[in-house]
Amino acid sequence: MVAFHFQFANRAGWRCEECRKNGLERKRRCGWLAGELRGERHVVWARRSVRVDECPKSLVTAESVSLVEAFAAWKLAGGGDAGGLAARTADAFCVLESELRAEMAHGTE
Ligand SMILES: [Zn+2]
User: Fold this and answer.
1) What is the Å distance from ligand 1's center to 56 Cα?
2) Is the same domain home to 47 and 89?
3) Ligand 1 midpoint to CA 31 (Å)
4) Structurally, how many domains does the chain consist of?
5) Among 5, 25, 77, 91, which lies 20 to 30 A Cα-Cα from 43?
């Protein structure tokens, strides 16, 4: 979910290296910081129904990113039978499909 929504964010503003340089990593609760060094829990980034209390850049795993990419490729190929997908992939696609539909209903402002 976060990986999906983070695609639409201004990701240029979320480079962990620059965060560190600008001293924003505590405020943004970057995952590269040890837990006790992160500030108090608060919403760091939000979009629609998604809220995170950690830097979304560090939060989103490579696996999530590749699932979102695989979903996009699958959609481009016309979707098709989800029965042949691994259960984990099918679950992810299901979530992504409903997010995508909501996205299309709302428009991308
Ligand atoms: Zn970060």
Assistant:
1) 7
2) no
3) 6
4) 2
5) 91
